[in-house]
Amino acid sequence: MPQATARLVQVLCCLLVLAGLSGSAIRLQDPVDASSPGQDPSVSATDPLAGTAPSDIKDGAPEQAAERGGSAAQPPEAEGTGKADDSPVEASGDDASVKGTPVVASKEAGPLGPPGPWQLVLDEEFDTLNTSLWTPYWFRDCHPGSTKNGVKTCSGNVKVENGNAVLQLSDSQSGALLSTNPKDGVPGHVGFQYTTGYVEARIYFPGTCSGGIHNWPAWWTTGQKFPSTGEIDIAEPLEGTMTTVYHSTDSDPAKWFVGCYAGGYHTYGVHRKAGVNDIYFDGKLEFSYATNDGNAPHYLILNVGIWADKKTLGPAGAVKVDWVRAWQ
User: Fold this and answer.
1) What was the pLDDT predicted at 108?
2) Can you spell out the DSSP letters for 99-130?
3) Which single residue of 39, 41, 137, 297 has CA 20 to 30 Å from 159?
4) Distance CA 171, CA 131 (A)
């Protein structure tokens, strides 16, 4: 082969080799996934925040959908903390905004007040009046010898309406009561008692913040041998003002005034422990005090009577109880 021709062949071979290397380099580049146009190749497919717009991220985590009122939804609360409820609050006039919308316990999550773990042992929703649990009078129905808070207790003044137990005064001598006392002698009445644990009720007390709570209603628990077994007045309006009171063999019962709770639904509870009671209003610990009742069994009472001859009769003075629950 002439020398010039051989030289030309060598040059062509070199060019072919270089072209092959260039093609290999192109093939080694990362391919773009045509199924994900515009995706940043630096974002991992397994990253939980992949594709999340920066405006959706708050404190390093995706922001949840906004709840009512414009605030961001919070993570699910731990058992025993309760959660907000969207039920409307009944109120009178301008008093509707005094306390806002009280939060309501979730029986699945536990009581609104103290954290758990808890086991629900009583759940009364008042779809009907369960007479195996409640007696609608104090020992004798509408009898002048069986009075409470200044009036006879008459079953005719207790009714279930719209998922509430409604207790009212029919006249100046006749009030209403519900009791879980298992020893009241009423046939078929099983009742309910507790020694420790947490009991609470969601209650509407009638009235206004300016005029006070009507009549003399109360939500309380007591034992079989008062005063040695004690009495816990969880929520007891006196002369229109909400109080919580503890009665025992002490000469001076504990008593605290806790502001206006008229004209709307609120949740009232007691955490009864060994030698100590904690009182909760709307999930907030309001009071804590020592007790000397030996944690004797207590039954539950809801009633309405008359204080100092001041009375509001009929529906205008009715106490409404949405539910009663107990946990241990």
Assistant:
1) 65
2) S----B-BTTTB-SSS-----EEEEE--SS--
3) 297
4) 24
Residue 4 falls within a domain, yes or no?
no
- Cα–Cα distance, 92 to 253 (Å, whole number): 32
> What is the mean pLDDT, run by run of 10 residues, along the chain of 328 residues?
50 45 40 38 34 31 30 32 34 32 60 90 98 98 94 98 98 97 96 98 96 96 96 95 92 73 97 96 94 97 92 97 98
Indicate which CATH number applies to the domain containing 152. 2.60.120.200
Question: How many residues comprise the chain?
Answer: 328
CA 96 to chain centre: 19
Whether 267 and 105 have beta carbons less than 8 Å apart is answered as yes
- Alpha-carbon distance 49 to 43, whole Å? 9
- Would you say residue 112 lies in a domain? no
Residue 307 has φ and ψ, to the nearest 5°, of -110, 120
Rounded CA separation 224/199 (Å): 18
Tell whether 166 is covered by a domain. yes
- Identity of residue 173: Q
Domains in the chain: how many in total?
Answer: 1
Which among 165, 167, 137 is positioned nearest to 152, based on CA atoms? 137
> Residue type at 85?
D
Q: Is residue 314 left, alpha or beta, with left meaning phi > 0 and alpha meaning psi from -120 to 50? A: left
66: left (phi over 0), alpha (psi -120 to 50) or beta: beta
Q: Which domain holds residue 172?
A: 121-327
